[in-house]
Amino acid sequence: MADPSAHRSLAYRPELDGIRGLAILAVIAQHINLPNTAFAGMVGVNLFFVLSGFLITSLLMAEHDATGRISLRTFYERRIRRLLPALVALLIAVGVLMALQGRLLDYLGPAAVSLFYVGNVAKAMLFDLGYVGHTWSLALEEQFYLIWPAVIIFAPRRWLVPLVLGGIAVSMTMQAALAGDVMAWFRPDTRADAILWGCLIALLRVQVPRIVAVGGAVLLVVVATSWLGAISMSLSSIGSAAVVAGAATLARPLSNRWLVRVGEISYGLYLWHAIPVNLLMPETAAGNVAAMVVAVVASFALAFASERWIEKPFRRARRAAAPVSGFASEPQPAPTSATSTVPST
Question: pTM here?
Answer without folding.
Answer: 0.91
